[in-house]
Amino acid sequence: MRIVRSSIDTVKGPQDWFTGDVFIDAVAAAPAPSRVSANLVHFMPGARTHWHRHALSQSVFVTEGVGLCQRRGGPIEVIRPGDRVLFEADEEHWHGAAPTRLMVHLAINEGDDEHAVVQWLAPVSDEEYGQAPSLTD
Ligand code: MN
Q1: Edge-to-edge, what's the strand order for the sheet holding 84-87?
Q2: pTM, whole model, 2 decimals?
Q3: Measured in angstroms, how far is the CA atom of residue 40 from the centroid of ligand 1?
Q4: Domain CATH for 118
Q5: Ligand 1: distance of its center to the CA of 71 in Å?
Q6: How far is the CA of 94 from the centre of ligand 1 (A)?
Q7: Pairing status of strand 36-43 against strand 77-79
Q8: Cα 82 to ligand 1 centre (Å)
Q9: Which end of the chain, N or C, is less surrounded by CB atoms within 10 Å?
Q10: Total tally of structural domains belonging to the chain
Protein backbone atom coordinates (compact mmCIF):
# COMPACT_ATOMS: atom_id res chain seq x y z
CA MET A 1 0.00 0.00 0.00
CA ARG A 2 1.23 3.48 -0.81
CA ILE A 3 -0.60 6.60 0.27
CA VAL A 4 0.18 9.81 -1.58
CA ARG A 5 -1.02 12.74 0.51
CA SER A 6 -2.38 15.75 -1.28
CA SER A 7 0.98 17.12 -2.31
CA ILE A 8 1.01 17.19 -6.09
CA ASP A 9 0.38 20.63 -7.54
CA THR A 10 -2.55 21.21 -9.83
CA VAL A 11 -1.30 21.68 -13.38
CA LYS A 12 -2.73 24.28 -15.74
CA GLY A 13 -3.66 22.64 -19.03
CA PRO A 14 -1.21 23.91 -21.65
CA GLN A 15 -2.49 26.09 -24.49
CA ASP A 16 -1.00 23.64 -26.97
CA TRP A 17 -3.62 21.11 -25.86
CA PHE A 18 -6.58 23.13 -24.54
CA THR A 19 -8.66 26.21 -25.31
CA GLY A 20 -9.58 28.22 -22.22
CA ASP A 21 -8.79 27.50 -18.57
CA VAL A 22 -8.31 23.86 -17.64
CA PHE A 23 -6.83 22.49 -14.40
CA ILE A 24 -5.54 18.94 -14.01
CA ASP A 25 -4.98 16.94 -10.82
CA ALA A 26 -3.18 13.60 -11.00
CA VAL A 27 -5.36 10.89 -9.43
CA ALA A 28 -3.42 7.76 -10.31
CA ALA A 29 -0.20 6.94 -12.10
CA ALA A 30 0.66 3.35 -11.37
CA PRO A 31 4.18 2.12 -12.11
CA ALA A 32 4.88 -0.33 -14.94
CA PRO A 33 3.80 -2.92 -15.84
CA SER A 34 0.50 -1.14 -15.15
CA ARG A 35 -0.47 1.17 -18.00
CA VAL A 36 -3.26 3.06 -16.31
CA SER A 37 -3.34 6.70 -15.32
CA ALA A 38 -6.21 8.87 -14.15
CA ASN A 39 -6.68 12.60 -13.88
CA LEU A 40 -9.38 14.83 -12.46
CA VAL A 41 -9.86 17.65 -14.95
CA HIS A 42 -11.69 20.94 -14.28
CA PHE A 43 -12.81 22.80 -17.41
CA MET A 44 -13.95 26.37 -16.80
CA PRO A 45 -16.98 27.54 -18.85
CA GLY A 46 -16.11 27.52 -22.55
CA ALA A 47 -12.90 25.54 -22.06
CA ARG A 48 -12.27 22.38 -24.06
CA THR A 49 -9.60 20.06 -25.30
CA HIS A 50 -8.21 20.32 -28.79
CA TRP A 51 -9.22 17.57 -31.18
CA HIS A 52 -7.24 14.49 -30.22
CA ARG A 53 -7.22 10.69 -30.13
CA HIS A 54 -6.18 7.98 -27.69
CA ALA A 55 -4.43 4.93 -29.15
CA LEU A 56 -5.78 2.69 -26.36
CA SER A 57 -9.14 4.43 -25.79
CA GLN A 58 -10.20 6.66 -22.89
CA SER A 59 -13.04 6.62 -20.38
CA VAL A 60 -14.26 9.80 -18.72
CA PHE A 61 -16.78 10.07 -15.87
CA VAL A 62 -18.48 13.41 -15.33
CA THR A 63 -18.60 14.47 -11.68
CA GLU A 64 -19.77 18.10 -11.81
CA GLY A 65 -21.33 20.69 -14.06
CA VAL A 66 -22.39 20.36 -17.68
CA GLY A 67 -20.06 19.29 -20.45
CA LEU A 68 -19.89 18.68 -24.16
CA CYS A 69 -18.19 16.04 -26.27
CA GLN A 70 -18.03 15.15 -29.93
CA ARG A 71 -16.46 12.55 -32.16
CA ARG A 72 -15.37 13.54 -35.67
CA GLY A 73 -18.39 13.42 -37.94
CA GLY A 74 -20.93 13.20 -35.10
CA PRO A 75 -23.11 15.74 -33.28
CA ILE A 76 -22.00 17.57 -30.14
CA GLU A 77 -23.44 15.71 -27.14
CA VAL A 78 -24.30 17.20 -23.73
CA ILE A 79 -22.86 15.24 -20.79
CA ARG A 80 -23.81 15.58 -17.14
CA PRO A 81 -22.74 14.18 -13.75
CA GLY A 82 -22.93 10.40 -13.69
CA ASP A 83 -22.50 10.10 -17.45
CA ARG A 84 -19.60 7.96 -18.62
CA VAL A 85 -18.11 8.34 -22.08
CA LEU A 86 -15.88 5.82 -23.80
CA PHE A 87 -13.80 7.29 -26.59
CA GLU A 88 -12.78 4.35 -28.72
CA ALA A 89 -9.18 3.65 -29.68
CA ASP A 90 -8.01 6.16 -32.30
CA GLU A 91 -11.43 7.87 -32.43
CA GLU A 92 -10.87 11.56 -33.13
CA HIS A 93 -12.81 13.63 -30.57
CA TRP A 94 -12.86 16.49 -28.07
CA HIS A 95 -14.45 17.12 -24.66
CA GLY A 96 -14.94 20.12 -22.44
CA ALA A 97 -17.30 22.43 -20.59
CA ALA A 98 -20.50 23.96 -21.90
CA PRO A 99 -20.22 27.66 -22.80
CA THR A 100 -21.87 28.83 -19.57
CA ARG A 101 -21.09 25.95 -17.17
CA LEU A 102 -17.93 24.45 -15.78
CA MET A 103 -17.42 20.71 -16.12
CA VAL A 104 -15.35 18.28 -14.08
CA HIS A 105 -14.52 14.77 -15.20
CA LEU A 106 -12.34 11.92 -14.13
CA ALA A 107 -10.33 10.72 -17.14
CA ILE A 108 -8.87 7.21 -17.23
CA ASN A 109 -6.17 6.57 -19.80
CA GLU A 110 -3.86 3.81 -20.88
CA GLY A 111 -0.46 4.17 -22.48
CA ASP A 112 2.68 2.15 -22.87
CA ASP A 113 6.06 2.33 -24.55
CA GLU A 114 4.51 1.96 -27.98
CA HIS A 115 1.29 3.93 -27.46
CA ALA A 116 1.29 7.51 -26.27
CA VAL A 117 -1.69 8.30 -24.03
CA VAL A 118 -2.85 11.00 -26.40
CA GLN A 119 -2.13 12.44 -29.84
CA TRP A 120 -3.06 16.11 -30.05
CA LEU A 121 -4.56 17.61 -33.20
CA ALA A 122 -6.03 21.00 -34.15
CA PRO A 123 -7.96 23.26 -31.73
CA VAL A 124 -11.75 23.09 -31.68
CA SER A 125 -12.62 26.36 -33.41
CA ASP A 126 -15.20 28.77 -32.03
CA GLU A 127 -17.32 27.93 -35.07
CA GLU A 128 -17.17 24.20 -34.32
CA TYR A 129 -17.80 24.77 -30.60
CA GLY A 130 -20.70 27.10 -31.45
CA GLN A 131 -22.62 24.15 -32.92
CA ALA A 132 -23.35 22.89 -29.39
CA PRO A 133 -27.04 22.33 -28.64
CA SER A 134 -28.86 24.57 -26.18
CA LEU A 135 -28.65 23.25 -22.61
CA THR A 136 -32.33 23.94 -22.07
CA ASP A 137 -33.62 21.87 -25.00
MN1 MN B 1 -9.99 12.43 -24.86
Answers
A1: 11-12, 22-29, 36-43, 103-110, 58-65, 84-87
A2: 0.93
A3: 13
A4: 2.60.120.10
A5: 10
A6: 6
A7: unpaired
A8: 17
A9: N
A10: 1
pLDDT in tens, 30-70: 888 889 999 999 999 999 999 999 999 999 999 999 999 99
Q: Is residue 102 part of a domain?
A: yes
User: Is 2 domain-assigned?
Assistant: no
Range of the domain at 22: 11-129
Distance 17 CA to ligand 1 centre (A): 11
Look at residue 137 and give its three-state secondary structure. Answer: coil
Structural domain contains residue 1: no
Distance 70 CA to ligand 1 centre (A): 10
Q: Is residue 134 part of a domain?
A: no
pLDDT digits (tens, 9 = 90+) for 79-119: 999 999 999 999 999 999 999 999 999 999 998 778 889 99
Query: DSSP 3-state assignment of 132?
Result: coil
